[in-house]
Structures are given as C-alpha cells and as structure tokens.
Amino acid sequence: MKIVLAYSGGLDTSLALSWLQRTYDAEVIAFCADLGQSEDLAEARSRAERNGAAKVYVEDLRHEFLARYAFRALRADAVYEGKYFMAASLSRPLIAKRLVEIAREEGAQAVAHGATGKGNDQVRFYAGITALDPGMRIISPVLEWDLHTRAAQIAYARTHGVQTPAFKSSPYSRDTNLWGSSVECGPLDDILLAPPEEVYTATVSPESAPEDPELVRLTFERGVPTHLDGEALGPVELVERLAERAGRHGVGRIDIMENRLVGLKVRGVYESPAATVLYEAHRELENLVLERELFQYKAEMGRRYAQLIYDAKWFTGLRTSLDAFFTDVQERVGGTVTVKLFKGSVTTVSRSSPHSLYHPDYASYEAENEFDQRAGEGFSYIWSMPARVAGLRRGGASWT
C-alpha cells in the first residue's frame, strides 16, 4: 500500500509518518506545503527522510496560495464572523488539491493528514479530497491511534526511534502561513483573561509600538494589490513587506469567540497584519468606485463566501459562481489608497481611482455647485410616500 501524508514536520505528523508505515505496512510519501510558515522546512525534510519516508515533497506554494486563494477572499471582502481572515481555512483546499495530485502521480491508494476530530480541519481535508477524488481513501491517524497524551507520544517515539522536533513545554497550538497565524489552547482557554503577550509572534504590543504613525500607499488593479508605496511587487513580496511593517505597529491582532464548524464555541487568537491592512484599503477603494446597491449587495455575498470557505465548501459550484460575480465587480476596483498605521490601528487617509464615483461638484455643500437643491423636496415627497400612507391609515396614532 502507498500513502501520501500531508506532512508539516511537527510532532503529530512526524509520529503519523512512522505510525502509518507500521499500522498499514505502507510506503509513505511525505508532502509538505511551503505556505510561508515559520518552521525550518529543510529540517522537516531531513526528519521525514530519517523517519523512513519513501519520498519527500517540499513545494513552494506561497504564490499560488496568495494569488488563487487569499486574494480571492480579499476581492470578496470575505471575513468569517466579521473578524477572522481565515489564513488556515484558505490553505486547506490547496493542500488537499496537491495531496490528490501527488497521490495520482505516485499511484497511491490513500492520503492521510494530521488533523484532530475536534477541529475544523478534518472536515476541510475530507471534503476537499472527496470532491477532487471521491474514490480516494482518507486516513486520519490522530483519530485512530491511542497516542492521546504527551507521555504516550514520547513513549511511542522512543520505542520506535522516531525523530521528532524538540518536545516543547509551550501549551499553545499554532498554525502559521503568509496570510496570518492562529494560536489556541493553554491559558487562552480561560476567556476571562486577556491573551498573554507571549502568544504573539508577528505583531508588537500596540502600547509599545512606535510613537509616530507610518503611512502606507497601496495600489490595486481589478481588486488585487499590485504596488506598495509605488513599487510593483509580486504577491509574496508585497504581503511579506506589508506584514512586517504593519506588525511593527501592532496592527492585526484579533481575539474572538469563534463558532466552529463542528458546533463548538472556541476562543481564537489570530495575527493577520498584512490582511488587516489590505482589507481596509480594498474596502475603501470599493466604496469609492461601486454604486451603493452593488457595494451593499457585494458585502452580503462576501459574508456568504466567507462562510463557504470556513465550512469546507471551496470545491462547490456556489463558490465558483460567486467568484465569477466578484471577478465582474472587481473590473473597476483599481486605484490607490493610503492608510495610516498607528498603535494597533489602520486608518484610511486618502483614496483615488480613475473609476471614482465621487463628484465634488455634486457632493459639496458649497453654494456654487451642480446639484439642484429644488429637486430635494420632490424626492423627499416621493421617498416618504409609504410612511405618509401608513400614517394616514393609523389616523395619527403614535408609534410604540
């Protein structure tokens, strides 16, 4: 039997690599997606080889992740429950896609992942893999084995000579990529307490951020960021540079009570410095170039899009149809927005676009302008007609 394992190089997937070989008498191929995480992927490759992987794939998918997944969510202004930019959620369809592609190339009969049964990722991997290859067998070692304590994991590693990353005393569970990071468990389970400063790795405390604000100029074409302070940059470099600058000002910290797909309420602490800035700038640019009805309707569809991403429904007809809608809307979303970074906040200070619907000659309250003030009474009369008729029907009775 041949199995392709989604391999992070961490403790669980290092154990899973060994466990799969022994439990299924299988040849295991490790696949590690480079999405801009902080781990040493060269060391992860070496560890996989030492633990008996038949082959190891370490693929740089950062550009594809941003261009085809994160930036699609940005174009949609998709934010789960109004706060979470879904860095982890957006990466799972891409990992699932490559798992299936590698399994087909290698003639594997199954794929495996290290997600637990309590989180969202087990559903995301299962749904993605099944949509792409309904006949592919999916193995979830963490759901099958009995290594549910740190002591049991250490004992297994020692018994079978499994090379693992250093066992750390940190109580936190982390997931990181270019678009953001998530932290759970440990002291964060006590929702009466503020997150300890130690949980943050990409942003400084707003209180200790620079005393002087910093201006950042972002240019968009068809809803996609293309320039930072006038310099044309590819997605990876633009996001990396922006994340560093925003993080230096404490921008991008999020602490929410999150409704998980599996039905649990959990506390999620996230850092998304680049995404926080890009969403602010993109939304302001849309408000400048889209008429009111389209802007408001698109916001509703953005919320629906976020729900699809979070709920493991990337590979669905509704998602692709919504993408077609957003692609059409974004044709006019081009221009430049300048934002101010200061003490954990990001604020738009200027915006411009060749497609701007702002017309100062009409919008100004100065006496000399193009707007016909006399038209206001007739407009107000017609607009308030339903209220007028209802008032006549009530016969002057007051509202309660």
Automatic annotation (TrEMBL):
Localization: Cytoplasm
Binding site for L-aspartate: 116, 120-121
Pfam families: Arginosuc_syn_C, Arginosuc_synth
Stretches assigned to the Arginosuccinate synthase C-terminal domain: 172-389
EC number: 6.3.4.5
EC supergroup of this enzyme: ligase
Main location: cytoplasm
Biological processes, Gene Ontology terms: argininosuccinate metabolic process; L-arginine biosynthetic process; urea cycle
Keywords: Amino-acid biosynthesis, Arginine biosynthesis, ATP-binding, Cytoplasm, Ligase, Nucleotide-binding
CC per GO annotation: cytoplasm
Alphabetized InterPro entries for the sequence: Arginosuc_syn_C, Arginosuc_syn_N, Arginosuc_synth, Arginosuc_synth_CS, Arginosuc_synth_type_1_subfam, AS_cat/multimer_dom_body, Rossmann-like_a/b/a_fold
Pathway assigned to this chain's UniProt record: Amino-acid biosynthesis; L-arginine biosynthesis; L-arginine from L-ornithine and carbamoyl phosphate: step 2/3
CDD domains from the UniProt entry: ASS
Residue numbers binding ATP: 6-14, 33, 114
Molecular function GO terms recorded: argininosuccinate synthase activity; ATP binding
Alphabetical list of Gene3D superfamilies matching this protein: Argininosuccinate synthetase, chain A, domain 2, HUPs, Single helix bin
Catalytic reactions of this protein: L-citrulline + L-aspartate + ATP = 2-(N(omega)-L-arginino)succinate + AMP + diphosphate + H(+)
Entry keyword Cytoplasm: yes
PROSITE patterns: ARGININOSUCCIN_SYN_1, ARGININOSUCCIN_SYN_2
Origin superkingdom: Bacteria
Family: Belongs to the argininosuccinate synthase family. Type 1 subfamily.
Subunit structure of this chain's protein: Homotetramer.
Protein name: Argininosuccinate synthase
